[in-house]
Amino acid sequence: SKARQGNSLSPRKHPGPRPKMDEQARSLLEADVENRPAITLRERCRFLEGVAGVSVSESTLSRLLRRMGFSPKEGRWVRARGTSS
Asked: How many Å apart are CA 70 and CA 3, to the nearest integer?
C-alpha cells in the first residue's frame, strides 16, 4: 500500500499559487458585504485578515467582489445581477 512506502495519502497539491480565498472566506466576505455594503476596501481587507487570516490587496478584493456578483454603486457594494430584496 502507498502508506507503507511512506508516501502521504493526501492528494497532490496543484501546481501554482493556491487560491487565496477558500469557501469559508468567501462566504464570510459575502455576508460582510451584505451587512456592511458601505465600508471601504481597506477596511474589508482588514476584516478578512482578522476573521479568515486571508491577506489580499484592495485591487484583488475589488476583482473578487465583482466576480462574486457585486458592483460598486455610490460608495457601496451592491449585488449587480439577480434580484435584490
From this structure: 45
What is the CB neighbour count within 10 angstroms for residue 3? 8
In this structure, what are the phi and psi dihedrals at residue 79, rounded to the nearest 5 degrees? -65, 125
Nine cell digits for residue 20? 487565496
Crossing angle of helices 41-52 and 58-67, rounded to 10°: 90
Predicted local distance difference test score (pLDDT) of residue 82: 57
Could you tell me the mean pLDDT of each successive run of 10 residues in the chain, 85 residues long? 56 62 90 95 95 92 94 92 54
| Helix (H) or strand (E) run with residue 72 in it | strand 70-73
- pTM equals 0.69
Handedness of CA 33, 35, 37, 40 (dihedral sign): negative
Cα–Cα nearest to 47, from 66, 65, 63, 33: 33
